[in-house]
Write a structure and sequence with these properties.
The chain has 230 residues and is an alpha/beta fold. The protein is built from ten helices and seven strands. A hairpin with a 6-residue loop joins strand 1 and strand 2.
């Protein structure tokens, strides 16, 4: 099924035909269609645990209201924020809802018809490693280009992977490509600013700040422990 043109300019083909000349020119929606097609081989599915999350129910209603308000404001202007390459950064203790809020952002982007890739950092690095296999389905360069091209790259658990020169190089390559192309990211981390600089390097953190702005803090007890105890 062909998705309709969000600008109501073409018939869903990605081209607009000039009635006078019969020439076809690229529609405003074509770039987005190309990005979504390229993103199909990436992980763009909201995990089952997060499909029912909402601003009107727990755990979101119990989170820091000032952080939730920032997320609402971001989502209310999701198209403009993605077009400008503006992202969000959640930091704080384990089990405080960082991933839940990040998933709300990713779902809003998907609902707006934008291309999204969703990964934990360990899983993303594992996928990058497979591109070096002899029987790999795609090249390392091709995967990095796809990661750089999606409208929103969502990466959970930044700083969770054991540091090595290879890890630092891969993470910097991804973040720098998105920084240069003004592409949005939403990230979560359990590390504070100083710890993250130590873990992934100053130049990567500097670019994440340029993309995502100041971290939104979520601190407190582990809500997952409450669920286990109930």
């Amino acid at each position: 099924m062909i998705a309709p043109c969000p600008y109501e300019l073409c018939d869903g083909s990605g081209f607009v035909v000039d009635d006078a000349t019969g020439d076809a020119v690229a529609c405003r929606c074509r770039a987005g269609r190309i990005n979504r097609a390229r993103a199909r081989s990436l992980s763009a599915v909201i995990p089952k645990r997060y499909r029912g999350v909402s601003f009107d129910r727990a755990p979101v209603v119990d989170m820091a209201p000032e952080v939730v308000r920032e997320v609402r404001r971001y989502i209310d202007a999701i198209a403009a924020n993605l077009d400008a390459g503006r992202g969000l950064w959640f930091t704080g203790d384990v089990g405080t809802g960082k991933t839940t809020l990040a998933m709300l952002v990713s779902r809003a982007a998907l609902d707006a018809g934008r291309s999204v890739a969703i990964y934990s950092l360990p899983r993303l690095l594992a996928e990058i490693r497979t591109t070096f296999d002899e029987d790999a389905d795609r090249s390392h360069v091709d995967l990095l280009e796809r990661l750089a091209a999606v409208d929103l790259l969502h990466v959970d658990d930044v700083g969770a992977e054991r540091t090595s020169d290879w890890v630092l190089e891969q993470l910097y390559s991804i973040v720098n490509a998105r920084y240069e192309d003004e592409r949005a990211m939403v990230i979560t981390t359990n590390l504070d600013h100083a710890e993250l600089r130590e873990q992934i390097g100053e130049r990567t953190v500097s670019r994440l700040i340029e993309i995502c702005g100041d971290p939104l803090p979520l601190y407190g007890h582990d809500r997952r422990m409450d669920l286990r105890a109930s």
